[in-house]
Write a structure and sequence with these properties.
Elements lengths: L7 H20 L4 H4 L6 H13 L17 E11 L5 E10 L3 H11 L5 E2 L7 E8 L2 E7 L8 H16 L7 E6 L2 E2 L1
Parallel strand pairs: 5-6
Antiparallel strand pairs: 1-2, 1-3, 4-5, 6-7
Length: 184
């Protein structure tokens, strides 16, 4: 053992103290704030499901990002197409945020014009509703998609540009793109 000269009781006591210190060191390395991931509380999920079944009108509030009440300005990165349409171009812009920052960034992406880049979305496609649901930016694109002839490469660039613009915020880790309110 580690303590050959110590008596039996003292040796057991020191071994117990050493074990306790190691346990506290291992357990104490992570705080409860780090372990509490939004939406991962099984009790909250069970309570929400039970409450919704018993009384569908009463719903527990979803965890949502803190949204500023007053208008603020914030720098965001939007991803637009280069003039030739071959690459995505990251552009830093300062936007006014009135509510949902993801929506403000996506509106800037769609509406802003300059001479170095071209719009990400075709003219017939508009930005619809933008929501954050459990760290997913739900982006609804509205328009007649059946008449578009842009090719798979351009479609991939649209998806990438929308996703990169939306997921730069810590509360939007993924993006879900809907076409006229339906999953593509």
């Amino acid at each position: 053992m580690f303590f050959p000269l110590l008596a039996g009781k003292t040796k057991n006591f020191l071994s117990l103290i050493l074990c306790l210190v190691m346990i506290f060191a291992l357990v104490g390395c992570s705080s409860s704030a780090e372990l509490d991931v939004a939406g991962s509380d099984p009790l909250q999920s069970d309570l929400k499901a039970e409450t919704n079944q018993k009384n569908p009108e009463l719903k527990l509030a979803e965890a949502s990002p803190i949204v500023p009440k007053e208008t603020q300005q914030q720098q965001v990165v939007i991803y637009r197409l280069t003039r030739d349409g071959r690459y995505l171009l990251p552009i830093t812009r300062t936007v006014k945020i009135e509510g949902n920052p993801v929506e403000a960034a996506l509106k800037e992406l769609v509406e802003w014009e300059d001479e170095w880049s071209k719009p990400l979305l075709p003219e017939k496609i508009k930005l619809g509703k933008v929501e954050i649901q459990r760290e997913i930016a739900v982006i609804d694109l509205v328009g007649d998609f059946s008449k578009l002839n842009i090719g798979a490469d351009q479609e991939a660039k649209i998806v990438e540009g929308l996703t990169r613009t939306a997921t730069q915020f810590p509360y939007a880790r993924q993006a879900l793109i809907l076409l006229n309110g339906k999953a593509a």
